[in-house]
UniProtKB/TrEMBL annotation:
Family label: Belongs to the ABC transporter superfamily.
Protein name: Glutamine ABC transporter ATP-binding protein
One function term, GO molecular function aspect: ABC-type amino acid transporter activity
InterPro entries cross-referenced by the UniProt entry: AAA+_ATPase, ABC_ATPase_HisP-typ, ABC_transporter-like_ATP-bd, ABC_transporter-like_CS, MetN_ABC_transporter-like, P-loop_NTPase
Function: Involved in beta-(1-->2)glucan export. Transmembrane domains (TMD) form a pore in the inner membrane and the ATP-binding domain (NBD) is responsible for energy generation.
Species annotation: Bradyrhizobium neotropicale
Gene (UniProt): glnQ
Pfam families: ABC_tran
Origin superkingdom: Bacteria
Classification via SUPFAM superfamilies: P-loop containing nucleoside triphosphate hydrolases
Length: 255
């Protein structure tokens, strides 16, 4: 006889992020204009488009680093608003990895990974250290745990940044051009880590122009231009037969 496993209702929701009619302005400039995007649990989305098209702004709005001016954003069942009491609660469910690593320079690698779980999740030092070491092992950098960020290569620092985000046990990971500041020989080690994460079922939104990664991992490629989503498709379709002239032009430039 099969028993149904009792899960809270919220955990059965098929979506983790809903963006509806999103508008973001900087002064008189509209950076995002009526953007709609739904991210399903375990889905991997690659977000691409020319520089200035609004990719970073979109994922920064999802993490509430930027406040939006119109429309709705719901993350894990909670709508993001100016008035929300628990923005840190929502933000801690969302892992973010930036182009420029953003590690704390005065903390060792393992301490970088321990800080937020202790402060936000209330883990004890030994618990936080154990979790940090587990995740540093997962990104194969545990042997460098007591070094400082400046003593590591860019690729190693970015893997630490990924481990640090994972230490919060996020429900979704947002990547903003995680390999574009790296020397070419270090790109693969970071992409391999991201591929592994994807294979384990993490929900991911990745801004990247690594089209090999997109083909291998993405369920959906979302192409933005001038603050709008212009086109979305599975990677095979997007690369083989982009519908819009703007996507064709973009692909011609990057491939
Ligand atoms: P992308 O990540 O696709 O390159 P961004 O989201 O960074 O694009 O930027 C989208 C547009 O919004 C650009 O024109 C950029 O100059 C503008 N922008 C982004 N952040 C700010 C800001 N803090 N103040 C003013 N304009 C901004
Ligand atoms: Mg950007």
């Amino acid at each position: 006889m099969q028993h149904e496993i009792a899960t809270p209702l919220a955990d059965r929701s098929p979506t983790i992020v809903v963006v509806e009619n999103l508008v973001k302005r900087f002064g008189g400039f509209t950076a995002l204009n009526d953007v709609n995007l739904t991210v399903a649990k375990r889905e991997k989305i690659v977000l691409c488009g020319p520089s200035g098209s609004g990719k970073s702004t979109l994922i920064r709005c999802i993490n509430h680093i930027e406040k939006h001016d119109g429309g709705r954003i719901v993350v894990d069942g909670v709508e993001l608003t100016d008035r929300m009491a628990d923005i840190n609660g929502v933000r801690s469910e969302v892992g973010m990895v930036f182009q420029s690593f953003n590690l704390f320079p005065h903390l060792s690698v393992v301490e970088n990974c321990m800080l937020a779980p202790m402060k936000v999740r209330g883990l004890s030092r030994p618990e936080a250290r154990e979790r940090a070491m587990d995740l540093l092992r997962k990104v194969r950098i545990h042997s460098q745990a007591d070094k400082y960020p400046a003593q590591l290569s860019g690729g190693q620092q970015q893997r630490v940044a990924i481990a640090r985000a994972l230490c919060m046990q996020p429900k979704i990971m947002l990547f903003d051009e995680p390999t574009s500041a790296l020397d070419p020989e270090m790109v693969k080690e970071v992409l391999d880590t991201m591929v592994q994460l994807a294979a384990e079922g993490m929900t991911m939104v990745c801004v990247t122009h690594e089209m090999g990664f997109a083909r291998e991992v993405a369920d959906r490629v979302v192409f933005m231009d001038q603050g709008s989503i212009v086109e979305e498709a599975d990677p095979e379709t997007f690369f083989r037969a982009p519908r819009t002239q703007r996507a064709k032009g973009f692909l011609n430039q990057i491939i």
